[in-house]
Amino acid sequence: MHEVALSHQLASAVQRAARGRTVLSVHLRIGALRQVVPESLEYAWGFVTKGSPMEKSELRIDWVPAEIECSNGHRRILDPNEYLDVRCQECNALTSVITGEEFAVVDIDVTSDR
């Protein structure tokens, strides 16, 4: 379960940004290719942040679909259950990932107290 490691790294970054203030929510963008299980991430976040100023914070997650594009400009959103095709289904050209690899903090809501 890599969600625990992700939660540790995320908590570290959020703690630095919050500068001692209580964290109310953390807004994330996570790509489908990161293979993050939402329930596992939320559970790990609760475990990692217990006893900290982030303890009662909410994770708000925008899920980004995996999209690929070939060298001829054909784009396709991948079904989460299919393997990543390296060739375009329309013209057989090689493809590259356009979206789906994101793992980013969009914003952090904190209280004004320190």
Structure in words:
This protein is of the alpha+beta class and about 110 residues long. The chain has a single domain (about 5-110), classed as 2-Layer Sandwich (hypothetical protein PF0899 fold), CATH 3.30.2320.80. The protein has 2 helices and 6 strands. A hairpin with a 4-residue loop joins β3 and β4. α1 crosses α2. The longest helix is centred in the N-terminal third of the chain and has 16 residues, at about 5-20. It is elongated, with a radius of gyration of 17 Å. The mean pLDDT is about 95. GO terms for molecular function: metal ion binding. InterPro entries: HypA/HybF. This is Hydrogenase maturation nickel metallochaperone HypA. It comes from Corynebacterium pseudogenitalium.
Which key features would you list for this structure?
single chain, 114 residues, alpha+beta, hypothetical protein PF0899 fold, 3-stranded mixed sheet, 3-stranded antiparallel sheet, 2 helices, 32% strand, Hydrogenase maturation nickel metallochaperone HypA
Structure described in brief:
The chain has 114 residues and is an alpha+beta fold. The protein contains two helices and six strands, in the order αβαβββββ. It has a three-stranded mixed β-sheet, covered by helices on one side. Strands 4-3-5 form a three-stranded antiparallel β-sheet, with no helix packed on it.
